[in-house]
Prior knowledge:
Helices cover 48% and strands 15% of the residues. It is an alpha/beta fold and 412 residues long. The chain has 2 domains: 6-140 and 295-356, Periplasmic binding protein-like II (D-Maltodextrin-Binding Protein, domain 2, 3-Layer(aba) Sandwich); 143-294 and 366-409, D-Maltodextrin-Binding Protein, domain 2 (3-Layer(aba) Sandwich), CATH 3.40.190. Strand 1 (18-19) and strand 2 form a beta hairpin.
Amino acid sequence: xxxxxxxxxxxxxxxxxxxxxxxxxxxxxxxxxxxxxxxxxxxxxxxxxxxxxxxxxxxxxxxxxxxxxxxxxxxxxxxxxxxxxxxxxxxxxxxxxxxxxxxxxxxxxxxxxxxxxxxxxxxxxxxxxxxxxxxxxxxxxxxxxxxxxxxxxxxxxxxxxxxxxxxxxxxxxxxxxxxxxxxxxxxxxxxxxxxxxxxxxxxxxxxxxxxxxxxxxxxxxxxxxxxxxxxxxxxxxxxxxxxxxxxxxxxxxxxxxxxxxxxxxxxxxxxxxxxxxxxxxxxxxxxxxxxxxxxxxxxxxxxxxxxxxxxxxxxxxxxxxxxxxxxxxxxxxxxxxxxxxxxxxxxxxxxxxxxxxxxxxxxxxxxxxxxxxxxxxxxxxxxxxxxxxxxxxxxxxxxxxxxxxxxxxxxx
Length: 412
């Protein structure tokens, strides 16, 4: 992706034509679950209200499926009007090739640097002092979700942390309930990272992923984590894993599984099912061990266009996505936290309130993994974790040694 031809750059300026007084913008994203679809509909409604038209370009599957398609289209001269990506390094090559719209003037005019928080989100959109994307939410991955009825029906107290869940697992299995649901692929890596953060601590996690501290990665702190994962592994066999993350969350909603470890976007699925946080289900930040938030989330980029009407519509969309009303409407349905602190959150549920309390009153906020290490290394780590969790014969020490090798080889 480092080498580009001038033809590709010029071709990428071709965009959707304007229609009448309005402009159609195709918007690509991978928000296709029930909660996600309800949330993205709020963005579409708000943009349509500007007189333009949101042309939905949802890509089925996860971000791992959608990202290569999105990037390939932009490089191939068939760009969309706007696209969802995650904050991090995914668009660096596209920016370097001059293919992405510069939002610096808009960001300055609307004071994004002061109204959007935490600062790390906008910093991830900034390259050489210029802003190229707009952050729309703050997602955190460190949550455990439990179905309260599953436990109370068995005469058990709902677990307050991951250790209590593991302790309750034998009784759950005896009752025919899966203790911890799991989806294939990236959710395995997310779960492992959550356990790493909960048990090794934020400081050690950042030292390994950002600073490439091999002594910690190969030391006893991380060694204990791999032993914990081996213990969890017996309750998440490969034949019990489902294809998609929302299916795993669905098992908890249906009472077929007791718990799931997933990001706060799982809250959108519980909302669609009309379940009430703190009453029907519990959401435990930091797996109930140490409440923390990572600064992941979603951002929107806008490929350059030679059509002034398209550019105008792109800037209008960028501005619309961070207005107070839209931030509230979208994030309440997405399960994520709004980027602004000056919005009315009287309708926020128990989970969002927990997240906001950590965000606003705690120092336990840290970068997302993709903000610290390259995508290829992350994919290797996820593949390793998937293999380890699916293979009960792989010793914890062997998995840890392979993990150290990947961290050591990751480019800084």
